[in-house]
Amino acid sequence: DDVTVQENTKPAQMPIQTDIPNLKDSLNFPIGAAVEPAQIEDPLHAQLLAKHFNSIVGENCMKFDATEPTEGNFTFDAADKLVDFAIANNMKVRGHNLLWYQALPDWIFKHKDGTPLVAGNAADKQLLLDRLKNHITTTIQHFNNKYGAKNPIYCWDVVNEPIAEDGSM
After folding, report:
1. What is the DSSP letter of 12?
2. What residues contact 140, with CB distance under 8 A and at least 6 apart?
3. Percentages helix, strand, coil for the chain, rounded to the nearest 5?
4. How far apart are CA 130 and CA 104, in angstroms?
5. Rg of the Cα trace of the chain?
6. In sequence order, what are the residues at sequence separation of 6 or more whose Cβ sits closer than 8 angstroms to the Cβ of residue 113?
C-alpha cells in the first residue's frame, strides 16, 4: 500500500535494498532467474541475484550453438561462469538446454563439405543422431567432470520446443 514510483534515469547507480527479507528465504520453493554471464559480472545484478534467488538458468549460454558453434569445437566459458557464480552463491542451476530448434548451429544439418543432409537418407539420419549424442554426452560430461560433487546443475531441459511454430520441424 505504501508504494512510490519514480523514474530513475541512472539505475546502475542505485543500490539494491538490503534491509528487506530475502525473497528466496521467504518462500518454500526455489526462486529462479534467467541470466547471462554479462549480468552476473555487473556488481549490482550479482548482488541482487545473490540476495533474492537460489536458482538460476542460463538464457543462452548453455544452448547448443553457444557451446558447440562448430562441429567438435566446444566452448563452455560462458556457461562455466554461470555455474561458478551459482556455486559461489549457494544456488542451484537448471541446465538449459541441450536441444532446441532455434539454437541449432547450421553445421548440424550439413556434411563436412557443406552439402545438406537429406531427409530419409539412413546414413544422414545416423550422422545427425551421432552428432546429437556426441553433443549431449560431451556437455553433460563437461559439467560432471569439472564440478564433480559440487556440480549445482540439478536437472537439464534436454529437448525444448522440438517443433517450430510454423510446424516445419
Report:
1. G
2. 98, 156
3. 45, 15, 40
4. 15
5. 20
6. none
Please give the model's pTM, rounded to 2 decimal places. 0.88
> One-letter amino acid identity for 152?
P
Report the alpha-carbon distance of residue 102 to residue 93 in Å, rounded. Answer: 22
Per-residue tens of pLDDT for the chain, all 169 residues = 677 777 766 555 678 899 999 999 999 999 999 999 999 999 999 999 999 999 999 999 999 999 999 999 999 999 999 999 999 999 999 999 999 989 999 999 999 999 999 999 999 999 999 999 999 999 999 999 999 999 999 999 999 887 767 876 5
| All three cell numbers of 6 | 519514480
C-alpha 120: how far from chain center: 32
Q: Give the residues across from 35 on adjacent strands.
A: 58
